[in-house]
Amino acid sequence: MTTDTDLASKTCLPCQGGIAPLGLDEARRMMGQLDGWSLSETGTAITRRFAFKGFAKAVETANLAAWLGNKQGHHPDIAFGWGYCAVTFTTHEAGGLTENDFICAARLDALMA
Ligand SMILES: C[C@H](O)[C@H](O)[C@H]1CNC2=NC(N)=NC(=O)C2=N1
């Protein structure tokens, strides 16, 4: 999809309070630009669960997601253990999803590809 490339080439804007989160319809529309991510039931977060055959890859992925978050100034919630790493993006300042979450998701996908 060409739109994936577009999202991954964007840079997160600093999050500020008072920003309205994307509505559920808009969030669903944005999901069309990502593969492998799932939208939370409330439409306020997106998660991708990476599966591996061991622990080292899970740790590597957690580190990569943390590095990306620091670089973009937009920080994911990360859970990992043997065989998996789950990365969740939401915009705390907005109380839901913003384009920043989709940018970081697309950037992580590009790094993992
Ligand atoms: C000032 C700074 O941009 C904000 O505190 C950032 C930092 N990282 C963040 N990360 C995420 N995931 N959501 C935020 O709202 C957020 N806010």
From TrEMBL:
Top-level EC class: lyase
Molecular function (Gene Ontology), one example: 4-alpha-hydroxytetrahydrobiopterin dehydratase activity
Keyword RNA-binding annotated: no
TM region(s), chain numbering: none
Highest taxon in the source lineage: Bacteria
Protein EC: 4.2.1.96
Pfam family, one: Pterin_4a
Protein name (Swiss-Prot/TrEMBL): Putative pterin-4-alpha-carbinolamine dehydratase
